[in-house]
Hints:
Shape: elongated
Strand content: under 5%
Mean pLDDT: 92
Number of strands: 0
Amino acid sequence: MVTREHIEQLINPRINQLLLVAQSSLPDSQFQAFRKIMLNEFGNSGLGKELDRLFKENRYKER
């Protein structure tokens, strides 16, 4: 069974890679804004919340 943790393990290295590229390419103020957006979108307030909802729905359907 796929879990949220499995998905995060696949996504997090890619996020880190994108942040490294952005850090090397953007001025600091733009990088900080980009970093904040990336972490919000892929963290607990974005994708994480959607994954929680998806897994919660799937658990409900399995009953």
